[in-house]
């Protein structure tokens, strides 16, 4: 049994989590709830009513709740009817970046990744992109958004006309409770403080939403974009997400480039999305064949490329970059990746105006090792 640090107030955490002291002790002993290098607590697994990625800041016992998992619509028309009881739904763009929660803790803006870790790079960006006044005027809020752009160390994308890395707000939630503000309240606050939001396509009557969303998805897919999030405007009911075929295939292409690291977790759900979407859209045989070709190429072509590269003694890595104001931030980010168990090579920084561009190779060791093993005669 692990010794529980003396500075942790079991009673207070039990109160915040709406659970018993015994359960909190069990979470701490099993390290499901554990201390970070910053001295805060992260919850690694959801428990009743508390999402994974929840972070407890021990100085003032403030809680930034983990972002709830959004359910996915597979057959869109049926899912809309079964899921929503509201008369209309708000349809926003689902962007392809990385989930970020930004809060004001101990008089500082900090940014948390989906898992609840304070990311030094994202924090530096958030402190530049988000005005402090929003938190001094509204101290009890958490900004939930997507960090997207080419200088993302997690999901680099060039499809959003972003120069480096931008924050796109999609929800505002309360500290400690995680309760969301309405869609209208979010946009009002964002406009007041000049914060960029994910695109709102419109608020549509539920009876018209299927046709509207289908057209939106086809247009987004043609531009290589991900999909939509469908919301109750009052945020009383949880949202749904729905993605384009092109996004599914792009995800698979990435996963099968590093097949022994990611492919298993990516594969099944995305194939299922393609099948259900094809049926719901009542595709012709020609359209189905086109979908099959796109899907097959997304799976097989990157895997063949990977094998050939390793056969030629080239190491497979994910190449990303960060743009930082301070080299100290880059050093902190290197340590952040180490804590997450990511093997990465940081290259010499390049000075650009008053910032530093740092290129990073994230080594996918399992894919490299597995491929080398098979190429030398070992079996699967």
Helix share, percent: 40-55%
Structural class estimated from helices and strands = alpha+beta
Point out poorly predicted stretches: none
Share of β-strand residues? 15-25%
Give the rounded overall mean pLDDT: 94
Mind summarizing the main beta sheet?
5 strands, mixed
3D shape: globular
- CATH topology name of the domain at 70-95 and 202-242: Dna Ligase, domain 1
* Strand order of the biggest β-sheet: 5-13-12-6-11
The CATH architecture category of the domain at 70-95 and 202-242 equals 2-Layer Sandwich
Rg over C-alpha atoms, rounded to the nearest angstrom: 22 Å
Description:
The longest helix has 27 residues. This protein is globular. Among the domains are: 55 residues, no CATH class; 67 residues, Dna Ligase, domain 1, CATH 3.30.1490; 67 residues, Methane Monooxygenase Hydroxylase, Chain G, domain 1 (Up-down Bundle), CATH 1.20.58.2250; 59 residues, Alpha-Beta Plaits (2-Layer Sandwich), CATH 3.30.70. Helices cover 40% and strands 24% of the residues. Helix 9 runs antiparallel to helix 10. It has 12 helices and 17 strands. A 5-stranded mixed sheet has the order 5-13-12-6-11. Strands 1-2-3-4 form a 4-stranded antiparallel sheet. Strands 8-7-9-10 form a 4-stranded antiparallel sheet. Its EC number is 6.5.1.1. GO terms for molecular function: DNA ligase (ATP) activity. InterPro entries: Lig_Pab1020_C, RNA_ligase_dom_REL/Rnl2, RNA_ligase_Pab1020.
